[in-house]
Amino acid sequence: MVKVGDMLIGYATDEGVRKRGASGGLVTAVLAAALEKGLVENVVVLKHINEFEAVPIVTDNVEEVLASTGSLHSVPVNLARYAVGRKVAMPAKPCDTRAVIEQAKRGKIDLDTTYIVGLNCGGSMHPVVTKKMLADMYDIDPDDVVGEEIEKGKLIFKTKDGKEKAISIDELEEAGFGRRESCRYCTLKIPVNADLACGNWGVIGDLAGNATFCQVMNDKGVRLLENAIEAGRIEVQPASDKAIGIREKVNGAMEKLGKTWEENVFTEIPDKERMQYYLEQMADCIDCGACKEVCPVCTCGEDSKCTMFHTLVDDYKMSMYHLIRLLHLSDSCIACGQCTDMCPVDIPITMLQNRFSIPAQRKRDYTPGMNVDDTPPYFEVMLK
Ligand SMILES: Cc1cc2nc3c(=O)[nH]c(=O)nc-3n(C[C@H](O)[C@H](O)[C@H](O)COP(=O)(O)OP(=O)(O)OC[C@H]3O[C@@H](n4cnc5c(N)ncnc54)[C@H](O)[C@@H]3O)c2cc1C
Ligand code: SF4
Ligand code: SF4
Ligand code: SF4
Fold it and tell me: Residue 304 — very low, low, confident or very high, per pLDDT cuts 50/70/90?
């Protein structure tokens, strides 16, 4: 019997899924069982195109779920919006999970019918940056890459000729490559806000590389695992104290690193220079609105204040659109990095937003995306 709080090590019983899985295929097997046993109507997964490209799909086809194994570190998409209005099970990095919870607060997602299989996350990379990094640092043609892995702080790429090359993530980041900026200062590495928290940290000995460490966070997590065990899709065993200790230690080190990065990224700007700083950062904005479209926390749709008060004759570089978004998202931005990823003129909009959001959220002792019962401090009352 599975209980809330259990720390387990498990893997898929299907040898193919176990072998292809990022670390034993447990996540895929749990998602497939949720679908075939009717726990959910659909599953959200990534359909792989290559190592750097994948499309999120919403499927009721178990075979498509089974084909989605593996972690794509250079596909930094946020999956929350794919759960809107559906009864789904989904894999979710901590920032996907935070966005799902923010959507639930706004009545767009029903958490009772949404099953979140959380994935630990040390960070993801932008595909364009990864391809340049492969050429500059690894001397590898991106088309030759057949697999990637992160082990002992090194990013390893495997190529068609059966060779592999590893470089430490610290070295890559010092050279300006590696994880996206928002991932570097992200400190939620284990998705304790999901129903299950799965990852490879703490998987040791013979099982290293072919099993998943899984923490059961709540009753839905119990249901997901018991369902997969009953379906014969997974096998689990209790994690040893040593395994639990290693996972905690790595997580602690990653949290510490995240805090150091936060200090490096958010350097103080003298009062007198602030306005000029923001104007310069925004100078290239072409007013395309992509940063709103892609934001997994924003639920305003067409009726949004940021676009309603904005006009194309408003040619201030810090437009009403941006000013309203800065304010509106200051309590709810989860620093997922999607807006920066999507900006066609490379404005670091996540960093600019978080110059306001981080202090605003800390001052109010509020962290968005963690608990559906915590109301955002600036939640407005609709006056009719
Ligand atoms: C970007 C990223 C970073 C990670 N970093 C760490 C880490 O530092 N430490 C750690 O312990 N674990 C990390 N993980 C989790 C780990 O890689 C495995 O996903 C986990 O151990 C489960 O393995 P599995 O074999 O059971 O998963 P699988 O059965 O292979 O299933 C993987 C699932 O993840 C989905 N998926 C793949 N790529 C993404 C993506 N980019 N975004 C959202 N969903 C995706 C797939 O659709 C599939 O459903 C990371 C995962 C990702 C995606
Ligand atoms: S923001 Fe955090 S959870 Fe999201 S991809 Fe980056 S490191 Fe992972
Ligand atoms: S404003 Fe940007 S970083 Fe913040 S939640 Fe929206 S997309 Fe993510
Ligand atoms: S995505 Fe970039 S260019 Fe487009 S509106 Fe946002 S900041 Fe401006």
Answer: confident
